[in-house]
């Protein structure tokens, strides 16, 4: 919410989505947000792909999405329990497709142009810091995604 308020005058007037932990988006909401966006930000727990139906994602066409930022791979006791319970019903191949590199490949095949994503598990605080750096460099300063990722790597 702080970042939305801080960058409100730049681009956030056009942003739509689900904020906070009030409710979990439905599959239809995920699909609508993904197919109608020019940029997509996921800031949440566990693996991004674990929140949507994989078979529906791979059938999607998302060519309008120029940038997808996945600040995921954060783990808590509750999220770990949720993911463990849902993984019981998935094949080993399905779980493998939810890994960061495979997720990026699948999203690229659906038409997403650029993907910025975590490669390993992290903390909420570290993702908050990444989101601040991304927002400042992409929205305020106007750096390219490549320049911004290079800054993040430092």
UniProtKB/TrEMBL annotation:
Annotated source species: Balaeniceps rex
Q: Which InterPro entries match?
A: CFAP46
- List, in alphabetical order, the GO biological process terms annotated in this UniProt record: axoneme assembly; cilium movement involved in cell motility
Protein name listed in UniProt: CFA46 protein
- What is the superkingdom listed in this entry's lineage? Eukaryota
